[in-house]
TrEMBL record:
Keywords: Membrane, Transmembrane, Transmembrane helix. The keyword Membrane applies. The chain crosses the membrane at residues 6-29. This is Uncharacterized protein. It comes from the Bacteria.
Length: 302
C-alpha cells in the first residue's frame, strides 16, 4: 500500500516536473525567437542606415561636383573620334570645351602626351565661337576589334575568360591632356585628364566574342560578332587556324548561322562543332570584314 502511494507521488512529481520543464522550454523558445526578431530588426535598421548614408554621401558628392563645375573657369572637355578621316592607321581625336571667363588677347593652348611620351606636345586650338574651342589630335593607333574570349573545360567544369590586352599594353593607348590660358603674366591650367584610345577599334569593328568548349577528345568553337549601330563594316567570314606549336596544320571555315542574325547586321553567329583535340594545340581565330580588313587573334594554347 505504501509502495503504491510512493509510486503515485513519484508519478505526480514527474508529471509536474515535465509540465514545468515544458513551460520553461516554451518560454525559452519564445524569448529566443523574440531575441532573433530584435536582432533581425537591428540588422535591417543598420542596413537602412548604411543605405541612407551612402545615398546622402552620393548626393553630397554629386552636389559638390556640380558646384565645382559651375565655379570652374573651363567646362568639361568633350571627346570623340572622327571616323570619317582615317588614313594609314592615323585616327583623329576631336576635343571641344568652353572657357567661361576669357580676357581679351588671351592665348589658349591644348597640351597632350600619348602612350609612353613623357613630354607634352602643344598644339594651337580653333575658336568655334566666343569662348568655345576645339582641337583635333592625330593619333597612330593599332585599330582592331575588341576580343572577348571564354574557355570552358567540360571535363573539370572550369571556365576562364582570357584577357584581351594586358595593362602594360593598354597604357600605350593612354592619352593625357590639359588646357592652359595665358594673358599678360598670368597662366592658368585645368587638371590633367586622360582617356584610353583602345576602345576606338570596338567602335569601328565591333566585338568578337569567342567561346571555346573543351571536351575529353573534341572541342567546339562558337563566335558571336557584336556589330556597331548603323555601320557598313561587318564580319562576313570567320576561320579557325589550327597550329601545332608554331606550325599551321589546318584551317577550317566557321559557318554562319543562317537566318539568325539581325537585319542591321549588328549580331552574327558562327559555329564549328566536334573538332578533334591534338597535342600542343594552339587555336587562332581569323575574321574577314566586308571592306576586306582581316584580323587574327589567338584564343587558346596548351
Amino acid at each position: 500500500m505504501n509502495n503504491e502511494k510512493y509510486l503515485k507521488y513519484i508519478s505526480i512529481f514527474v508529471g509536474v516536473a515535465l509540465v514545468i520543464s515544458l513551460i520553461m522550454n516554451v518560454t525559452l523558445i519564445s524569448k529566443v525567437d523574440e531575441l532573433q526578431f530584435r536582432m533581425d530588426q537591428l540588422s535591417t535598421t543598420q542596413h537602412d542606415i548604411m543605405n541612407n548614408v551612402h545615398t546622402q554621401t552620393g548626393q553630397i558628392e554629386s552636389a559638390l561636383a556640380e558646384f565645382k563645375e559651375e565655379q570652374s573657369w573651363i567646362s568639361p572637355i568633350q571627346f570623340n573620334f572622327n571616323k570619317e578621316n582615317e588614313e594609314d592607321g592615323t585616327t583623329e581625336a576631336k576635343f571641344e570645351w568652353q572657357i567661361k571667363e576669357l580676357e581679351e588677347d588671351s592665348e589658349v593652348v591644348f597640351h597632350y602626351a600619348f602612350g609612353d611620351e613623357e613630354e607634352f606636345t602643344d598644339i594651337p586650338v580653333e575658336a568655334i565661337e566666343q569662348g568655345l574651342y576645339q582641337v583635333t589630335v592625330p593619333l597612330k593607333l593599332d585599330v582592331e576589334p575588341q576580343w572577348d574570349i571564354f574557355i570552358r573545360n567540360e571535363t573539370n567544369h572550369s571556365e576562364m575568360m582570357k584577357p584581351d590586352i594586358d595593362e602594360k599594353e593598354r597604357e600605350k593607348s593612354k592619352l593625357r591632356y590639359y588646357v592652359t590660358v595665358s594673358s599678360d603674366d598670368m597662366v592658368k591650367s585645368n587638371d590633367i585628364r586622360w582617356e584610353y584610345m583602345d576602345y576606338f577599334g570596338a567602335s569601328k569593328y565591333g566585338i568578337i566574342q569567342t567561346d571555346v568548349d573543351l571536351m575529353d577528345d573534341i572541342y567546339h568553337v562558337n563566335v558571336t560578332y557584336h556589330g556597331v549601330d548603323q555601320s557598313s563594316i561587318v564580319v562576313d567570314e570567320v576561320y579557325l587556324l589550327k597550329y601545332q606549336g608554331n606550325n599551321l596544320i589546318g584551317e577550317e571555315e566557321i559557318t554562319i548561322e543562317n537566318g539568325n542574325h539581325s537585319i542591321e547586321n549588328e549580331i552574327r553567329f558562327f559555329h564549328l562543332y566536334e573538332q578533334e583535340m591534338y597535342e600542343d594545340m594552339r587555336l587562332v581565330i581569323k575574321t574577314v570584314y566586308s571592306n576586306g580588313d582581316s584580323f587574327e587573334k589567338e584564343v587558346y594554347s596548351e
